[in-house]
Design a protein that fits this description.
Elements: E1 3-10, E2 13-15, E3 21-23, E4 34-36, E5 42-51, E6 56-63, H1 69-74, E7 83-86, H2 91-94, E8 98-101, E9 140-141, E10 146-149, E11 158-167, E12 172-174, E13 177-183, E14 191-197, H3 209-216, E15 220-230, E16 233-239, H4 241-244, H5 250-262, H6 276-287, H7 299-306, H8 314-323, E17 329-331, E18 337-343, E19 348-354, E20 359-365, H9 371-388, H10 390-398, E21 406-412, H11 420-435
Parallel strand pairs: 6-7
Antiparallel strand pairs: 1-2, 1-5, 2-3, 4-8, 5-6, 9-10, 10-16, 11-15, 12-13, 13-14, 15-16, 17-18, 18-19, 19-20, 20-21
């Protein structure tokens, strides 16, 4: 849907109202190849369409001399990070706003019908008369430093220290560094691609940067930049304490965080049973806002990490894991738990073991059918328990009022005279007698 807006251009800013503005660096205007007149401001009417996925306003200028100043004052800028992309600009009007330009760099923005029109509002400025920005050499960028040489009407030497705050969403992970675009301060207003080096960073960290932000404990970084200009040659150094915190251990730390986060997942509206991939998909959605293919973790790794803590029924879980024969399923309610599939001598069993509980629930089929249908019956039963509670389920089961297609067994693993090992041996003997 197209929306009408009024904007005011003042040199290097696009104002949405009298105070809120978007810098030209957040537009598709080639600011290294043009400048607006410094002492003037221009009111324009635009039609905009919002691209929510990329946070971009696509803007077409409909009036190059707007009088809608009252409307302009009432507008609001909800997101200062939003970008504006102009298209089909009428050159005969737009040229009047510029003090210098390189027309060939503007062609992609212009309405083709107006490219060769001469402005009726001001004398045409020939491209050959452009300031030396026209002949600015290209950027040279490598992993060790970045230099940019530009020509100006006068020689300028200066050194300036800056502190810049950038949100993680606005930086990009590249090989051995992070990067972001930064606009040089006046009088140059020239964009530089700033890199902060760190040999531990990989380009594919771009897919897990929300996890990295979580590990660092901030959703932004502070960057200290020193800019040095000598006779038109610009160099810089950039450092960040937050980026320095990214070490070779960052992936292991994130993997452990993901496992710990699993135990915090609580969603009664979710499916009853989850695969490991589905569990991690929930974690990624909550933390990283998108899936990732970088963090590979298997069932054994997850189980070993979870059981590394003070888990009451650790021995029982480890034993069931040693005899199960299919991919594990997991439950989130009423506690985090594992659903094991065990092949017995005469029949097969699903064994449900919740963390830090006192009993193992087992089901077998009364009438043999496919493993898939067997699992679906067990899933229905677990869903009933999640809604109504274990105590009610056991009571209803004794009365044959719950899922007549399954045989139900419960084996307790209470302490035997306070000896957990003896309790485990008694429990294991009952399990073995049942499945064999």
């Amino acid at each position: 849907m197209s929306v009408k807006k009024t904007i005011k251009i003042v040199y290097d800013k696009i104002f949405i109202n009298n105070t809120d503005f978007i810098p030209l660096s957040q537009t598709n205007l080639p600011i290294g190849s043009m400048e607006f007149k410094k002492q003037e401001s221009f009111f324009l009417d635009i039609h905009v369409q919002f691209n929510k996925e990329e946070n971009i306003l696509n803007a077409e200028i409909t009036n190059y001399s707007s009088n809608n100043k009252k409307k302009f004052l009432l507008q609001q800028l909800k997101d200062p990070s939003i970008k504006i992309e102009f298209f089909k600009i009428n050159w005969s009007y737009f040229e009047h706003f510029l003090s210098i330009y390189k027309k060939s760099d503007l062609l992609y923005l212009l309405d083709k019908k107006t490219i060769n029109q001469v402005s009726n509002l001001a004398p045409r400025i020939e491209e050959e008369a452009l300031s030396p920005i026209k002949k600015a050499p290209p950027i040279h960028n490598d992993r060790h430093h970045l230099e940019k040489t530009i020509r100006t009407n006068h020689k300028v030497n200066f050194s300036k220290k800056l502190s810049v705050r950038k949100c993680f969403k606005d930086i990009k992970f590249i090989e051995k560094a992070i990067s972001f675009s930064y606009m040089l301060p006046p009088p140059f207003l020239y964009p530089l691609d700033i890199e902060v080096k760190n040999n531990h960073i990989l380009a594919n960290y771009e897919h897990i940067k929300n996890y990295i932000a979580q590990q660092i404990g901030k959703d932004y970084i502070e960057v200290e930049i020193t800019i040095i200009m000598n006779d038109g040659k610009i160099e810089y150094t950039a450092t960040s304490k937050e980026i320095d915190l990214i070490t070779s251990d960052i992936i292991d730390s994130i993997k452990q965080f993901r496992i710990n986060y699993i135990l915090k997942l609580k969603d009664i509206n979710s499916p009853t049973l989850f695969s490991l991939a589905e569990i991690f998909s929930l974690v990624d959605k909550n933390i990283n806002n998108k899936p990732n293919s970088l963090l590979k973790q298997n069932e054994l790794e997850v189980m070993s990490s979870i059981l590394n803590g003070n888990i009451r029924n650790k021995l029982q879980i480890e034993y069931l894991q040693s005899i199960h024969s299919q991919k594990l399923k997991f439950t989130l309610q009423p506690n985090f738990g594992f659903l094991f599939f065990v092949e017995g001598k005469h029949k097969n069993f699903y064994c449900w073991e919740l963390l830090n509980t006192h009993a193992t629930y087992l089901w077998s089929q009364k009438n043999s059918s496919s493993t898939f249908l067997f699992m679906r019956e067990v899933e229905k039963t677990i869903n009933y328990i999640q809604i109504n509670g274990r105590k009610k389920y056991r009571k209803q089961q004794k009365l044959d009022q719950v899922n007549l297609n399954l045989e139900f067994y419960v084996i307790y693993h209470k302490k035997a005279n306070g000896n957990l090992n003896e309790s485990f041996l008694n429990w294991r003997e009952k399990i073995c007698n049942l499945i064999n």
